[in-house]
Amino acid sequence: MWRTSRTAGARSNPVRIHLASAAIALAVAAVACAQPRNDPLALADQTTQGVYNVDYDATVARFDDALKSQVTRASIGQLSDQMHALGAYHGLKQTSADPDKGRYDFEAAFDKGTLLVELRVDPDQKIGAYRIVPQPGGTPPNSTPSPN
Asked: Phi, psi at residue 19, to the nearest 5°?
């Protein structure tokens, strides 16, 4: 029986391949986690969830400095109250986009109606404007639909 000699501490090829694959996978995962999500829908949804949950830090996490200076915990609480009056939040659907200007509109769906979310994303991928507008066709908060 022949035995191949190896230097002490040397690893076999299959082990090297597995280690190299694991290192590459770890590096790819680290890069993916480190990169901010630049998708306008993801930015709008993260911010809308932050407002709905009255979470100041989550709400302003991607705001530019000018917009952050305009937002207060009280203003987030007021918007959250409007949202909660419409029931549970079900997510956003994009209704319009002008990527050249960084402007995007979304419909926020709730149990009892919808709200319009207007978003402007700066070239550096920070949110420069975020506005919630009641929808004329949605059921207004604190009202009941008329029977027809």
From this structure: -65, -45
Q: What span, in angstroms and rounded, lies between the C-alpha atoms of 84 and 115?
A: 11
- DSSP per residue over 27-92, as a string? HHHHHHHHS----HHHHHHHHHHHHHTT-HHHHHTTB-HHHHTT--HHHHHHHHHHHHTT-SEEEE
Instruction: Divide the 148 residues of the chain into consecutive groups of 10 and give the mean pLDDT of each group.
Output: 56 55 48 57 97 97 96 96 96 96 97 96 95 75 39
CATH of 40-134, one of 3.20.14.10, 3.40.50.150, 3.10.450.590, 3.10.180.10: 3.10.450.590
